[in-house]
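Structure ticket #2291
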Amino acid sequence: DRLKGRGAKIATFHMIAQTEKQCERRGRVYGEIEYDGTMIRVYDFATSEAQVHDFQQAGGGHGGGDDGLTRQFIRALEAAKRD
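Resolution: structure written out below.
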């Protein structure tokens, strides 16, 4: 028995492409949290102040996202092998 009693595992990888702003992610949550490919802005209603967190994208496809997704997918597979 190749699985040595661990039971069957199923792995799925799903990716969606072709957005209006190809490879540019942006969003807003109730006006309190906004983000795009370069920053995350958080507005605090209690203090009426906003904090902006800037970051740099990693190199490679999709701002490093391709490598990151692949790396996490492989880690998940490795973790499933140990279970």
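Closing remark: The chain has a mean pLDDT of 76.
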